[in-house]
Amino acid sequence: MPQWVHFSKETNPGGAIQFDYQVDLAWVKELLRGEVTIMGNLNYNKLTVTDPKQVSDHIAKRLKIAATGGGFWLAFGCEIPRELPVDNMKAIMRELKRSGKYPIS
If you average pLDDT over residues 86-99, what whole number do you get? Predict the structure, then answer.
């Protein structure tokens, strides 16, 4: 398992519910209040047509909204799209290594 992957009670207090990119993460975070891990909500449509910098910004925004305090698992809604450019996938991984380790402040 990579060094930057870290699991604890805070990251999965009671299971996980997957939310697609159309769902407002701030609303879900408030609604679930740490009872269930939020899983999602990368916009696969956007990430297949933007540059790696925009991909990093997309990831950082989601981490800022939903990861604080635990209970967030960054993921695509249901799959990694075949059309996702390799450079954009690398940007996702770089941003997770940089910003996605718990505890997130």
Answer: 87
DSSP string, 77-105: SS---TT--HHHHHHHHHHHHHH-SSSP-
DSSP string, 23-77: S-HHHHHHHHTTSSEEEEEE-HHHHTTS-HHHHHHHHHHHHHHHTTTS-EEEEES
- φ/ψ of residue 91, rounded to 5: -65, -40
* 3, two tokens: 């060094």
Contact 50, 89 (CB under 8 A): no
- The tokens describing 104, both together, are 């997130």
Average pLDDT across the chain, whole number? 79
Q: How far apart are the first and last CA of the chain?
A: 23
CB 62 within 8 A of CB 102: no
pLDDT tens digits for 33-55? 877 888 888 888 888 888 999 99
